[in-house]
Structures are given as C-alpha cells and as structure tokens.
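The protein record filed here.
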Amino acid sequence: MTEKAKTKMASLVLDKKALEAAKKNLENGVVTPSLGTNAKEIVEILNGALATELVCVLRYRRHHFTVEGALSAKIKEEFLIHANEELGHADLLAERIVQLGGEPNFNPDALSKASHADYDESKTLKEMVKSNLVAERVAIESYRQMIALVGEKDPTTRQMLEGILAMEEEHADELKDWLQP
C-alpha cells in the first residue's frame, strides 16, 4: 500500500476522542464537539433568517388583505399561501435554533433590523408583486450564502436551509410570472 493510500485510509477513521466527548455534556443536546463553537454562529445566522421570514409573513399578509381589483382575486389567495409557507419556514428556523441551544428572537423591535428583506406597504397589485419578488430574491441570495457558510459544519441545518431555498425559488418564479403582461 502506498503512503498516499495509507494517508487516505487514515483520514476515513472516526475521531474516537470526539465520540467519547459526545458522551458528556448531555445538556447540550444536538451540539456535539464536532459542531462546537460553530453552534453560536449558526444560531446568529438562523436568527437573521427567522427575522426575514417573519417580516415576509407580515408583508404577504398585509398584501393579502389590502390588494384590490378584479384581477387580484387569485393573487390575493396566493399571497396568503406564501405567507403561510413563510411562517412554516420561520417555525423550522426557530425549532433548529432551539435545538442548537439558542433562543429564537421574536422581539418585534428587532425583526426589521435583523431582516434581510424589507417590509412594504405598496398600494397597487403590480407594486405588491414586485415588492414580494424583490424580497424573495433577497431571501434566495441570503439562503445561498448561509448554505455556503454552514457547509459541512452542520449538515442538518444545511439541508433545512436548502429545503427553504427551494421553496423561495418557487415563490420568486411565480411572482416573476405574475409581472408578465
């Protein structure tokens, strides 16, 4: 066996010390030594995503209740569907934050400051759709960046973020279509 092959095989060996350390500090739940100090950073990133989702829920719900016009009936219902899906994302994020030993930040005063997307009070259907498309594109970009930052440090969080990203892309695609004449 070549030296390179031996090195490669050695890298596929589990870290016994980390396995032993995982038997301790049970109060840390899912946060094992391999996640270590990354958990706090990941919680911080997730709280930013949580704020973004909650602001999006509020924006979509406002648009659902305030949109007017004969052409808006179908989109009005879609705004509510999107709001509920964004709320589902917020729930996933909050649950993961707690699993990682953090506290989800639901403080209303902090939400708009921490959100990556803006709240909006558009008056026309076209403005509402455009505002939501902008917010979805911001969410898409922020989720892509979060996925890259989390990488292999926390596969569970990464998979959750990838699932949310896929739905945000669906929202953006729908909204783009609604802007077409």
Remarks:
- The mean pLDDT is 91.
- Helices lie at 3-10, 16-21, 38-66, 73-99, 108-114, 125-150, 155-179.
- The first helix runs from residue 3 to 10.
- Residues 37-179 form a domain with the Ferritin fold (CATH 1.20.1260.10).
